[in-house]
Queue: 4 jobs
Job 1
Amino acid sequence: GPLQPLRRGAFILLEGCDRSGKSTQAAKLVRQLKARGCRVEHMRFPDRTTPIGKMIDAYLKSTQELDDHAGNDEKIFVKVKVPSSFTSRFSVRLKLVCSASGTSIVVERYAYSGIAFSAAKGLDFSWCKSSDVGLLAPDITLFLDLPICEAGKRAGFGDERYEKEDFQRNVRSQFLDMKHDDMKIIDARKTIDEIHRELVAIAIETIKKCATLPLKDLWK
Ligand code: 2DT
């Protein structure tokens, strides 16, 4: 018979401010997609288990060894966010997983977080964006949108460096400025199960739609 077109996996991104439910929803989504027979991997950015990730983790938790750099936050942050090989290596891995094996990936945070948090710190928006041009573009970005005053009430808010309400408000508006056709705003005030059902439906639709479409690059 005729050759089957190569089917690729979808790149499904969960974005949002802190405590918006990304990790909970990503885990449930991955489990549900697997239960339905989809091949799927779960990744997060930053991955706090890699060597660079450990440095980022220490930075985000403001632990002792980085307190020595007080006043030098900007520099550490730029290293966290940017061009180096870090984001691009991550993107290359995503590309390989999606295309080579037809596996879909559910990713927590990506370039939009990098840009939103960097821009909220006062770095130039275009500059923040420029370092991510050409990375693999998500097929769909699900922005879990929670009013910051609600996030502030959730367990653990305030534990990390960026978990301050004014800062998070700024981050949220940076995110919303990047809204585009492949970004869906999800009302994160709903119950865990309501949100889950919404995400499953969108993920399945995206996986079907993207199977035979080429991968895309960010902002090209
Ligand atoms: P979580 O591990 O709780 O998601 O927090 N961040 C993330 C940056 O500052 N730059 C980046 O490029 C990315 C991807 C957002 C991770 C924190 O790290 C911030 C919150």
Note: Residues 141 and 183 are 5 Å apart (CA to CA).
Job 2
Amino acid sequence: MVKHIFLIGFMGCGKSSVGKRLSYLLKQPYVDTDDRIEEKEGKKITQIFADEGEEYFRQQETEVIKGLFDAKQPYVVSVGGGLVLREKNRRIIRKQGICIYLRATANTLYERLKRDTQRPLLQVEDPKARIESLLEERSAIYESCADRIVDVDGLDLPQVAELVRRAFEDEKAARRQRRMETEEIQNRSEQRKNGKQILVMHGPNLNFLGIREPEIYGTASYDDLVAYIQREAEERGLMVSFFQSNHEGALIDRIQEAYRDHTDGIIINPGALTHYSYALHDALASVDQIKKIEVHLSDITKREGFRAQSVTKAACQAQIYGKGFAGYADALDQMMTLLGFEKNS
Ligand code: DQA
């Protein structure tokens, strides 16, 4: 879809002159909705208003911007001051491009328009009061329709054109970024749809993280660890669930349940059971369709001698230790490889 740039704002805010300059800067052709209508009708807008009425004119405006759907290249479009007052027109604009509001105060507008006799809505006794009341009616609509706002008071044409150009580029970049983020989320939910389930298990005393031996395990709690793993999993588009128990049998029961609920991967920190639980080893070994990674917060090879040995490790595809919380992020990465996922980053 061709992305036009639409300039909106009250009459006299500089849409036409800024639009022409922008057309030159961006090398995009320029169109003014008022000019298009005048050309098509063969008369001035004041005359169209007088002959056919405002409603007819508004209908012509809709036709002009609808016609831009067929454009072969992006245009700079200067939009009549009242065009965006119609919800339908706002929708058409939103679908086709980026909308920038040239915002001016009533004073600035009055100074620019006071000698203008071509604006049907201002041919009244007190044009300043008319500008103020129209602006009050319209400014919220202009603002809500705009992707970006440029304040034009006190600025000359080249300054405004430059600000608009930058606003346009910024908006394009922001949209690109949003698109990439959306695609990433879609990719992740694709992976979720694959339904891979990872169970993170913790054995005895790990619920006491933050309380137990902080000089070894740190001050962060078990809940902090769960939140950390959850975040890391989300970043990778993975679904994780958690289980912690201080009881060997409960851990074994949960591993057997994992077999029945078709869990794809288990990341397990068995705590001290690591060093002596053949029963836990057997439970892990009996579910060989589930990928398993053993994790320890501390470096079990550099502590008391009994910790250096892991009887559960033989039933797992990998073992990670000594990296604190980060060991679980590594485990998620390794699990993705084991499960045949492409990494996101
Ligand atoms: C631990 C190391 C084990 O030796 C100890 O019994 C634990 C925690 C770790 O994460 O470093 O409970 O598994």
Note: The chain has 14 helices and ten strands.
Job 3
Amino acid sequence: MKFFIDTANLEEIRKAQDLGILDGVTTNPSLMAKEGISGDEAVLQHYKDICDVVADKVSAEVIATDFEGMITEGERLAAIDPKIVVKIPMTENGVKAVKYLSDKGIRTNCTLIFSATQALIAAKAGATYVSPFIGRLDDIATEGMGLIRDIVTIFNNYPAIETEVLAASVRGNMHLLDCAKAGAHVATCPYKVIASLTKHPLTDRGLEQFLADHAKAQELAAV
Ligand code: E4P
């Protein structure tokens, strides 16, 4: 499973990149706003800065909702760097834009997927990724992981589908574990979730003991 980081914060992206396990980045307009990035030039520059940190696959989301606007903005974002994946919301215009951009060889990530049929039509339009949102479904008492499992099953039923399932709105360690069990191709998570993957209290306790025993042996050897 590929690991993407879900943030527009450069420091977090650098830290995840330094771990050596990062496969890509997803952003969205809310995450960009959280970093105080606004205005066309600042937005383009920020995506450039992200592309300078990671090897590939930086999702940059369009703001336009009409077809013409989406493709103009999508082409503009794609021109920033070959690492850009154009993120398009799941709407009728979005599906048309995914098809248009995919036909032009531009990679797309169809976002705000909340049903398996939305994922299927995005795949049919040639999306490189579909982003089903787990956490936001859980928030309304609907099992988000069930959606991941359904989409993975459907895509596996049709080997001609090359679209990857990019599990989004991942809120914790269990979500990530279940995504891996379900066979999601990618999970995008906040930095705190990535960092939590290295943690276990028994690891801490075990390491403490190893170091203490080593120090004791050194002391005895020195006597
Ligand atoms: C996906 O690409 C979105 O940016 C993201 O995962 C949304 O997560 P949230 O529901 O925690 O905001």
Note: Residues 6, 26, 28, 111, 131, 133, 135-136, 168-169, 188 surround erythose-4-phosphate (CB under 6 Å).
Job 4
Amino acid sequence: VRPRVWVSQPLFGDIVGRLREHFDVIETAAVGKHPQDEIAAMLASCDGALVTLNDRIGAAEIANAPRLRAIANVGVGYNNLDVPALTQAGIVVTNTPDVLTETTADFGFALMMAAARRITEAERWLRDGQWKQWSFETMLGGDVHGTTLGILGMGRIGQAIACRAAGFRMRVLYHNRSRLRADIEGTCRAQYVDFDTLLAQADHLVLVLPYSPAVHHLIDATAIAKMKPTATLTNIARGGIVDEDALADALESGRLAAAGLDVYEGEPAIHPRLLALRNVVLTPHIASGSLATRRAMVSLAVENLTAALGVGPRAGDPPSPVNAAALGAQRKPGISK
Ligand code: GLV
Ligand code: GLV
């Protein structure tokens, strides 16, 4: 009997279709967040799953899924998955790093620039019919070139943003759990500083760190109070890193010049105070969303799932496992625990 895999929402059909070579594929037609009991019901009969950040999977969702051996997340961030619980159960988890790095860095840079130069605010004003005459003082923003860029989280995406900053002759400061090797710092022309120095010196602060409970509301009122009032804050990581109430306070009072947000704590719901503010650029979690990159992400996830289920050219050796430990202790096919 062929292993069965669940694809949790419509993805590129021509790419996902490759799974049919080895597996029975069940595709859910509905887009968005599925009820947790529906997720559990789907996993109950499956050997593998191709999921997105919409799908939260932990101990409860796999409790009745004895055959489940692999979950391929289409995305680099995997805070939707309880990796320790899945590892414990012998389920291999994979993500899609690398293929989205440059596209996501492009978008982070664009969002930062849009916030600093008030691009979407100016466009809304123009479309509103408010542009009656050209004036010297219309929509004055802050500069990007020659300023100090602060990058919080210096993984692959952070490094790619740092490379872009060189073209704008920016000084690049970063903070990260661990300091980069000196040769990588050299390539990125980035200087390591502590968190408070990063907050105090950045003209533009960009968040690119993975979410974990340890960084929940890391950017709160206390952190924002340490930033320059002329600074911008851009978040392309995860919404939960920023205390949105504190951010709205700061944007309202002029304690912070502007923000660019692609991610939100309760997405797709947006904090009503952020929606009402002019000095924040709001986009719907699309930083990795070029057509080519989204296709590459699905392709990599398909390759990961196939390999993690022990078939195809890389059987047993998925390109980007998150919990390499589980590979050695993976559940055996079709055997209940
Ligand atoms: C998207 O947010 C991702 O983590 O890939
Ligand atoms: C994750 O955010 C990365 O930097 O690859």
Note: The pocket of glyoxylic acid (ligand 2) is lined by residues 76, 97, 155-158, 208, 210 (CB under 6 Å).
